[in-house]
Structures are given as structure tokens and as C-alpha cells.
Specification:
The protein is mainly beta. The protein contains no helices and 10 strands. The chain has strands at about 5, 10, 20-25, 35-40, 45-50, 55-60, 65-70, 75-80, 90-95, 110-115.
Length: about 120
């Protein structure tokens, strides 16, 4: 059973930056497409960015040019570099398999990102 542990969230002012990390247990991480998702209060969970096992990336329109997803298969870790943060980026951020996967691994606890002055 793969376990996912997200970290790196926090409180940041508008225009600031954060780097999120997601560590995954299990040897199958390297062959899986991965994604970062977020859920704001009262809203559904949405896909923010995804990366294939060959490092091809895709982004939601709302974060294009500001966020960068990357992965380190040797460390079983996927990252999300978030720049030029906006208040509307406030949410709990989760990682999991990519959006085209037939199933998701159990969701981790997520990491809270709050963008506020």
C-alpha cells in the first residue's frame, strides 16, 4: 500500500513563494504519473498540475506560468514550486496519481497553503 506524505505548506503573503514536497512509499512510484491537487473550503478537489513518468507536465490554467511540478524518482518525491502566490491559491494541497489513472492511492493528510496579507 503506497503512503503519501505532503509537506511544505504555510502562511505566505501575496506574491510570495512556497515549495511543496510529497514523499511516497513504494517502488512503483517511478512508473506512475503524479499530480498535485488542491481543495479550498466549500469547493471540490481540483487538479493543479501533473507530471508523467517521463517528466511531461500539464497545468491548470489558473496556475500556468506560476507553478512548476517536478519529480525525483530516486527519492520517490514529487515537488510543486509555487511562485507569485495569490489569495485564491489558498487551499489544502494533496498529491496522488495522475488524473488519468484508473484508481488513486489512499489520500494523505495534505498540506495547508494560506495566502494572505
Amino acid at each position: 500500500q503506497v503512503q503519501l506524505v505532503e509537506s511544505g505548506g504555510g502562511l505566505v503573503q501575496p506574491g510570495g513563494s512556497l515549495r511543496l514536497s510529497c514523499a511516497a512509499s513504494g517502488s512503483i512510484f517511478s512508473i506512475a504519473a503524479m499530480g498535485w491537487y488542491r481543495q479550498a473550503p466549500g469547493k471540490q478537489r481540483e487538479l493543479v498540475a501533473s507530471i508523467t513518468n517521463t517528466a511531461s507536465t500539464n497545468y491548470a490554467d489558473s496556475v500556468k506560468g506560476r507553478f512548476t511540478i517536478s519529480r525525483d524518482n530516486a527519492k520517490n518525491t514529487v515537488y510543486l514550486q509555487m511562485n507569485s502566490l495569490k489569495p485564491e491559491d489558498t487551499a489544502v494541497y494533496y498529491c496522488n496519481k495522475g488524473p488519468r489513472s484508473s484508481y488513486f492511492w489512499p489520500w494523505g493528510q495534505g498540506t495547508q497553503v494560506t495566502v494572505s496579507s
